[in-house]
Amino acid sequence: MFRKLLVLAAITLSAPASAAVFTLCAEAWQPFIYQNAQGQPVGLAVDALGRAARAEGHRIRYLFMAPASCLRLMKEQRVDILAFATAEGSPPGWLQTQQPLVYWVLNAWVRADNPLRHYPGLAHFSAQKVAFVDVYDYPPAIAAKRDWQRVPANDSITAVRQLAVGRVDVIFEDAVALQDVDPALHGKIRRLQPVVASVAQPFSFRPGLELLRDAVDGEALRMKGNGELDGFYLRHFGSTLAQVSASH
Fold first, then answer.
1. Which of 221, 169, 222, 175 is nearest to 198 (CA)?
2. Count of domains forming the chain
3. Secretion signal: which residues (predicted)?
4. Cis peptide before 194 (omega within 30 of 0)
5. % residues pLDDT > 90 (the chain)
6. Are residues 71 and 184 in the same domain?
7. Which domain holds residue 115?
8. Strand pairing partners for 130?
9. What is the pLDDT of residue 180?
10. pLDDT for the residue numbered 187
11. What confidence score (pLDDT) does residue 247 get?
12. Residue 135 and residue 110 share a domain
């Protein structure tokens, strides 16, 4: 888990009263899973999970909490689904989705006056200064690189400020995280395309929910096959699904 703290909210999707209700805990993360202005859960993952649950005759109740709180509830067996957790980050026996639906997508960001117009590859930034956010679990390609100077940053906002004032030469961030940054700083930085790296973010289901897990995987395959996922990633991240899934 790598996102910032958010407040608690609980929402139950409409469905027949006789349906089984499963609780999913997540940190709100646009455009994948979050609350709209009316307080309803929305986003790519909500749509996919909702369709999969309805196909199995179930409904989903959403808890939006900080990552640490979600993990605590998971270990206490007080939630049925966690977004997002690998097998290593889940209790024994929990089940993870196998078909990627949600990716943490990272681009390289440079100062607006940098002559670069397209992402040139990680090798270009050797010997340069890069902001590293302490709580991020960076993709292997970024985490393993050692021939640059890492400058610690507490969060994405700090990293952007470091870049804007010239303390670092590049940051690796997702565009959504930067929506919380002071608008005055946006004109001082620029995103390079295409994607630098991505990490698939699986959903983790408690034991006994194999059919629901499989239904979510089936929904991800359907959305990939009909081009829905490709359109989503192009619209929100400026890269095709193939570009996103191939980066690491």
1. 175
2. 2
3. 1-19
4. yes
5. 76
6. no
7. 103-198
8. 150, 170
9. 67
10. 82
11. 67
12. yes
Q: Letter for the amino acid at 112?
A: A
Strand, coil or helix: 21: strand
| Residues 52 and 164 both lie in one domain | no
* Model pLDDT, residue 242: 87
What's the pLDDT score for residue 28? 93
Tell me how far apart the alpha carbons of residues 197 and 154 are, in angstroms, rounded to a whole number.
21
Q: Return phi, psi of residue 164, to 5°.
A: -60, -35
If asked whether residues 58 and 176 sit together in one domain, one would say: no
Query: Taking the CA of residue 125 as centre, how many other CA atoms within 13 Å lie in the half-sphere pointing to its CB?
Result: 25
**Spans in the chain with pLDDT lower than 50:** 1-17
- Residue 248 resides in a domain: no
Residue 16, pLDDT score: 41
pTM of the complete model beyond 0.85: no
- Which helix (H) or strand (E) segment holds residue 152: the answer is strand 149-153
CATH number of the domain bearing residue 138:
3.40.190.10
Amino acid at 177: A
Measured distance CA(22)–CA(185) in Å, rounded: 41
Strand 95-96 to 34-35 pairing: unpaired
Partners of 237 in the β-ladder? none
**Tens digit of each residue's pLDDT (9 = 90 or more) over 17-68:** 457 999 999 999 999 999 999 999 999 999 999 999 999 999 999 999 999 9
CA 40 to centroid of chain Cα atoms: 19
